[in-house]
Amino acid sequence: MRKKTSAKKRSQNHGSSSCNRSNRSQIRHQKVAFLSSRFCFKYVVNACLVYSDPSFTPAKHMKLKEEDISICECKYDASNPDSACGESCLNVLTNTECTPGHCPCNEHCRNQKFQKCKYAKTKLFNTEGRGWGLLADENIKAGQFIIEYCGEVISSEEAKQRSQTYETQGLKDAYIISLNANYFIDATKKGSLARFINHSCQPNCETRKWTVLGETRVGIFAKQDIFVGTELAYDYNFEWYGGVTVRCLCGAANCSIFLGAKSQGFQEYNHLWEEGDDRYTVENIPLYDSAEDEPFPSTHETVTNYSGVLESKKGSEIKFEADTGMESHYSFGTQDVAGKSEENETNKETEFSLEQKRQAFSQANAMISRIRSNSACRNYNIGPGPSSKPRKSQHIPKQRGRPSGRKYVSSKPVAQLFASKEVQEEITKYEELKNKATSDLNLLYDEIRPAIEEHEQDSQNNVPTSIAEKWIEATCSKWKAELDFHFSIVKNVMCPKPAGNEAKPSGEDGKNEMKYLTN
Ligand SMILES: C[S@@+](CC[C@H](N)C(=O)[O-])C[C@H]1O[C@@H](n2cnc3c(N)ncnc32)[C@H](O)[C@@H]1O
Description:
Layout (H helix, E strand, L loop, with lengths): L1 E2 L17 H15 L34 E2 L18 H4 L28 E5 L5 E5 L8 E4 L3 E4 H13 L7 E3 L4 E4 L11 E2 L5 E8 L2 E8 L10 E2 L3 E2 L5 E2 L17 H7 L16 E2 L11 H12 L23 H4 L3 H10 L2 H11 L5 E2 L39 H6 L4 H34 L10 H30 L25
Helix pairs in contact: 10-11
The structure holds S-adenosylmethionine (SAM).
S-adenosylmethionine binds next to strand 9.
């Protein structure tokens, strides 16, 4: 493959491509479908970038420089049409579309599907409980490009703001997907039919990123052969950042029960439940059901149930300190996490009217959810972890000031709970090592950030291997240090050392004097 300059920066902005005449009928078909949907769109676009809101400054289209154009080595053979940019085309192999005027196969090139809107035939239909869905209106082959996920390309800041606005407006469906570390595609107001594809925990489609005229674009591709009439679905990899929990109605045997249940935010907030653990039953979690209009808990009972979920966390024998950085406006739902008494909660209840509670719930839980494209995070998950400092470039917060639900272990008080000085020192030493590994990782992130950002199209997929290796090494070191730290605590709980004279058990009856970890 010839490429005039390979290491050049690529813009993340989306190119607005227009479909050729043969595709126009399909676009018209989409237009009809959109107008008949519950969100009445004025027009349909076939490129990811849409200009509509005057207050919105969209990313600008980039003009691909000559030296950045990737040129494949395919040769068109009239007796074998598959010879023109098929599976073995070097551009296809690197998820890059050929550039018109530069492909050796000229008009025979088959690797311009995004640009030419070579979509599969699809049809909107009304699902039961999941709103609109999209189905295959023809047989689709495994690996086939189905449709581009189009919408407004917005910054992560804008995405965060919009998510909150949509939540406040009572919009129930999420249409913002991540394009790369810095940009998102919002198909809430404008988009292609791809916006109607629902989530499944056992999907027949997947998202893939392609470079089209130097810009990253997201397409929906078939994971398997799909028969006409079958609903299309992909795994949203939904990131849950708080807010209303949406029950997944995909019906798959391996269903995760909630949208975003696999995401860190969800797991931290709701705590991971294990097999046989019935603390987090569906009845105890405030649910948004697509079929209902009211996305927030509307009755006192529901709110009380919500607290009940948290209450059920009481009573564990060993408790570590919970992070209590919470704000008062949502304290009614989080008092147990903060360790406040039930008496307090009752007093609070008299202070808040039900309506105020509803509002507080809404504010505190502003749904900042986004759908990650599957392929986006397949390779190196480079970025600060939950304990790292926030990245400047990615501003989607988890939950505003909400205690994350994660229990933080602070080694000082824990170490002091052990009677043995030797154990105290051991635990303190491991915590220092853990802190150092965490800080090394943060420093490394700052160091490699420019390199990541140079690969603007996707910080996770396209960083050089050397950087990824550094990152993996530092992450492993941090994990090991964390493990050592926690192990030092667990080990000394399980096999306590006696206090005072380290060699001999102390106390009259020979029992060790280790203090048990309580509150
Ligand atoms: C990208 S939209 C999909 C189209 C949507 N059904 C509509 O009517 O516009 C995503 C939203 O659809 C709903 N949804 C998608 N998959 C779902 C599922 N498996 N179970 C429940 N709701 C689902 C959720 O409300 C989600 O936020």
